[in-house]
Amino acid sequence: MAKGKKLDPSKKLIVGIGSALVDILLLEDESFLAETGAPKGGMTLVENKTVIEKMLSKTKKGTSVVPGGSACNTILGVGRLGGPARFIGKRGSDDLGALFESSLKNHNVEPVLFTSASPTGCVLSIITPDAQRSMFTFLGASSETKPEEITPAQFAGAAVAHIEGYLLFNEKLLRASLKAAKAAGALVSLDLASFTVVEAAKAILDDVVEEYVDILIANEDEARSFTGLTDETAALSALAKKSDIAVLKIGKRGSYISSNGTIAAVPRMGSGAAVDTTGAGDLWAAGFLYGLVNGLPIERCGTLASACGFEVCQVVGASIPEDGWNRIRKFL
């Protein structure tokens, strides 16, 4: 299905596909993160769960355990906003997997979950005092989704299929997901996820975006890695040439959204300092896509997105509490 297709106003469903992961949240200092040797603010894949367990053995701080995964966070947000939502992924046949699935249902999200004998994937998110999060990801069962398991029927009725950038690590699954979504008549939204992902996927990213992606979402670091441009205006222009709607998120300063040849500058919402940026981009996408499928003007979609992003930064983890959702609903 060619790009340039418009949203069908009769469709409201947003379908996400990505890694079914459980987040382990740890508040630690800069020296603890430095000892890991990982880049600050990035995402590092680990081959087994013991790597994460060894890191946790070196801290005396407590942890929080919540459902996670980039696309899943976005879809959970859509469900909490009251929109029809569906998530596709693979979990383990274990307690963490059961927790993950029940959380989807509790957030009014329809689960389409394959199961595996492998453990449910998890992410250790180390949150430093400046609210930056650096992630160590054990994919576990989530990495075992097979391209042949993905069908257009799983995207049936979708206005938008939201694809997390982490699928770029699995090109065959990514392309199967994109083809199935397009065959079902959905527009495709791609969140670039992390500058480390963009750097690792440069060989295929251009072709994938130009062939399939209608809505491209990036932050400053991701846009710089993808386009090679440091100037924000130039980077946004480059993104806009590749997709019908291009988003450049600029942290505390808000975002720029390019659509139909015009650019909307959206300021940040709220004035409180961030406690934790985990899930900020994911919940931003939830607000933006919800607004888009419900016919809101682009700038108002961005404002709703900013409200969601702001609220999730006021708590540890990617789950907005009920009082935060109440403030967002008042905005709506």
Description of the structure:
This protein is of the alpha/beta class. It has one domain: 3-Layer(aba) Sandwich (UDP-N-acetylmuramoyl-L-alanine:D-glutamate ligase). Helices cover 38% and strands 25% of the residues. The chain contains twelve helices and 14 strands. A nine-stranded mixed sheet has the order 6-5-1-9-10-11-12-13-14, sandwiched between helices. It has a five-stranded mixed sheet with strand order 3-8-7-2-4. Helix 3 packs across helix 10 and helix 8 (220-227) crosses helix 9. The chain starts with 12 loop residues before the first strand and ends with a helix.
Alpha-carbon Rg, integer: 18 Å
Question: Would you count the extended β strands for me?
Answer: 14
Strand order of the biggest β-sheet: 6-5-1-9-10-11-12-13-14
Helix-residue proportion: 25-40%
Strand content: 15-25%
The outline comes out as globular
Assembly of the depicted chains: single chain
In CATH terms, the superfamily is Ribokinase
Structural class: alpha/beta
CATH class equals Alpha Beta
Largest pleated sheet: 9 strands, mixed
The separation of the N and C termini measures 33 Å
**Secondary structure tally, helices:** 12
CATH names the topology as UDP-N-acetylmuramoyl-L-alanine:D-glutamate ligase
What is the second-level CATH architecture? 3-Layer(aba) Sandwich
Mean pLDDT: 93
The tally of domains stands at 1
What are the secondary-structure elements, in order, as H or E?
EEHEHEHEHEEEEHEHHEHHEEEHHH
* pLDDT < 50 stretches: none
